[in-house]
Amino acid sequence: MTSSGTFLTRWGRKSCPAGTKWVYSGQMTGPSWRSVGGGSNYQCLPLYAEYTHYAPTAGHSSLRAAHYRFGPHPNHRIPRAVCETGEGRSQLMIPARIQCPSDTWKLEYRGNMVSTAEYERHSKDFGVISNHYFRSSYICMDEHPESLTSRSYGREGPQVYLVNAAYGSGWSGALENTEGYRRNTALSCVVCSK
Question: For the chain, which end, N or C, has fewer CB atoms within 10 Å of the first or last residue's CB respectively?
């Protein structure tokens, strides 16, 4: 594919915002929440795959469909659209905002910050269990998320949760100067372009 434009990923939707051109849609994927290894960034797999050749995999990592763990579609698979925004346009995701910075930026969509909870449990001698946690990406999920299908699935793939800000005084890891933040409330976000 040849293109002179830049691209926008719309998480949680099958279609592109007005003023952009649809490139392809697919499903949000990542490693199993229980797996070791694999990438830390999410992928948009098309609904139909093409291969140059078929070869068995040994010692492989795998991508699995991501699922909502909040909102109107719990345990449903998450769609994703890739859109062309036009020549020379920049894209910016800003957490904890509901508007773009100025009139020179165009609002592509609003949403909520999400990430996955990925960990693996290992059994050790004498029944001791250890947990190994992995980091994933923070993304801005569209404020009106859709489901890829009407079917609810199991929970083997990445499980996407809302993100809030840890703030307060006197304890480790708390954000400082957090005016307007609310405890246990999902962070908003915007995706802007210009």
Answer: N
